[in-house]
Amino acid sequence: MALSRTRLCGGSAVMLLYGIRPAGVTPGCCTLTLVSRKLRLGGQLSGLQQSYSTRDQQSLRERVGSRLKWANEKYESFLQNNFPRFYLLYHTFMTGAKLLFRDAKEMKRIRVKMMRQSQSLQQLPYREVEALRQFRRDVIKAAPMVLISIPPFANYLVFILMYLFPRQLLIRHFWTPQQQMEFQQIYHRQRAQHHAGVLRGLTMAVSNITEKPLQRQLLQLCNKIERGAHPSVSQIHAVRRLFVGPPLGIKRLKAAHMRSLSCQLFLTPRLPAFLIRHRLWGHASELLQLDRALSKLGLHQLSDQELRQACYLRGLDSTRLDVDHCKEWLYNWLQLSTRLKDSEVSLLLHSMVLLSLNYPTAAVH
């Protein structure tokens, strides 16, 4: 009478599923207790399954990784013993790929830091500025090879081209140490062919100078270099005003003169004059910012390789000099560049010839 059909049915279902219930316990309470126990037990089992599944996945990855490492070591040993020349190419390529991937990660880190801290290029330390500059040049040079390798089976052609034309098609990461030195000497000889063009442009500009003292100082500077003597920083700094406006400011240089300067930075001279002028201004300003960052860091913080690379970038054939002479030359360069204003970057470009052309080579290896 007082018991409802639902209550009776619930109690009957509990007794049928779990046996006779204890005295004094209502059927609804028993049902909730049993359901909660099942849920807790199910959760514990699920957690154990996930734990075992994660451990199995980690163990599987470790086993696969160790097998791949073993197979790669066997393959490299086979190449080294049977095909030593191909092994050198393969090893250089794999090392270069790792270095390029490392540089890409470093670029991402620098860019993220600049965005989060609202930093400009001028606020970055020297090594980060240099890394950004070099990575951009590497990507531009590697882009054609990447585009060629996109079609199916084109990677075989890419490997052939890489083997036949490593200097023209590959970036520095994929060169052997011997190739790096050899290619740097080749590139320096190429830009040295245009030193005479830069000096010719300076000599021709003498007649367009209205101030007689400055005209005389520039003529003496050009004559001294043509005689094979090395100029001092003070002599170059004395004519700095000529490189702001006419006749030697970047906006006033003639096309042939600008093409000779472009070759000092390894820029193509086969462009219209207005594009050459724009590129010269951009690269010269970048080099000036790099000098300022290097001055803050200090030359004593650079490794021997960084020191040689810094000299080579600024026009000196550092492969033929010892470290002490490289440091001395770079110190003199910074004495000049850190005193220049942004409007005087044309003098910085000309100094790549003025300071390097007759630098003593008594320390040749």
Shape annotation = elongated
Spans with pLDDT under 50 lasting ≥5 residues? 1-32
Amino- and carboxy-terminal Cα gap: 114 Å
The percentage helix is: over 70%
Helix/sheet category? mainly alpha
Q: Report the radius of gyration as a whole number of Å.
A: 35 Å
Number of helices: 15
Question: Overview of this structure, please?
Answer:
This protein has helices at residues 5-18, 27-82, 84-117, 126-148, 155-164, 166-169, 177-192, 195-205, 212-226, 233-237, 255-264, 273-297, 304-313, 323-337, 345-354. With 365 residues, it is mostly helical. Among the domains are: 84-169, no CATH class; 191-354, no CATH class. The longest helix has 56 residues, at 27-82. It starts with a helix and ends in an 11-residue tail after the last helix. The relative contact order is 0.06. Mean pLDDT is 81; it is low at 1-32.
Task: Please provide a brief summary of the model.
The protein is mainly alpha-helical. Among the domains are: 84-169, no CATH class; 191-354, no CATH class.
